[in-house]
Amino acid sequence: MYRIGELASQCDIKADTLRFYEKHGLLAPSSRSESGYRLYTKEDASRLRFILRAKAVGFTLNEISELLSIELDKANWACADVKGMVDNKLGQVEAKIAELTQFANSLQSLSNACCGGPDSAEHCSILEALESEDKQLNARNETAHNGHHHAPK
């Protein structure tokens, strides 16, 4: 049996993290000592490592809870169910990467357009580009509100 600090140390996390997982129903101590300390078994330690590995690859607490449910009742689930969860998460990550790549490309274009010199920012190409985009967006919104529906350029 492990006390909370021992298990936390063994898994290189803080005791507060164990309490957090307990609060969210992912982990519970198997028992408590006479003085009220949480006590964990080797099975609890294995469950905690499962949680930490799932968290490390990007699963949310709700998704980890679902994975734990499957882990506890493997006979009533198919590999396809687990693969579906992983493929769904992979799709989310790939979409986020695409979004971040677009952000990076836009920021790189803004940075490339600016001289970065010591002169006043009155004619800064970055600010002008952001103002220009804002004016284009406002013009599109005004056109849409006036009942004109033109395709954006």
Automatic annotation (TrEMBL):
<keyword id="KW-0805">Transcription regulation</keyword>
<dbReference type="InterPro" id="IPR009061">
    <property type="entry name" value="DNA-bd_dom_put_sf"/>
</dbReference>
<dbReference type="InterPro" id="IPR015358">
    <property type="entry name" value="Tscrpt_reg_MerR_DNA-bd"/>
</dbReference>
<keyword id="KW-0238">DNA-binding</keyword>
<protein>
    <submittedName>
        <fullName>Zn(2+)-responsive transcriptional regulator</fullName>
    </submittedName>
</protein>
<dbReference type="InterPro" id="IPR011788">
    <property type="entry name" value="ZntR"/>
</dbReference>
<keyword id="KW-0804">Transcription</keyword>
<dbReference type="Pfam" id="PF00376">
    <property type="entry name" value="MerR"/>
</dbReference>
<dbReference type="Pfam" id="PF09278">
    <property type="entry name" value="MerR-DNA-bind"/>
</dbReference>
<feature type="domain" description="HTH merR-type">
    <location>
        <begin position="1"/>
        <end position="70"/>
    </location>
</feature>
<dbReference type="InterPro" id="IPR047057">
    <property type="entry name" value="MerR_fam"/>
</dbReference>
<dbReference type="InterPro" id="IPR000551">
    <property type="entry name" value="MerR-type_HTH_dom"/>
</dbReference>
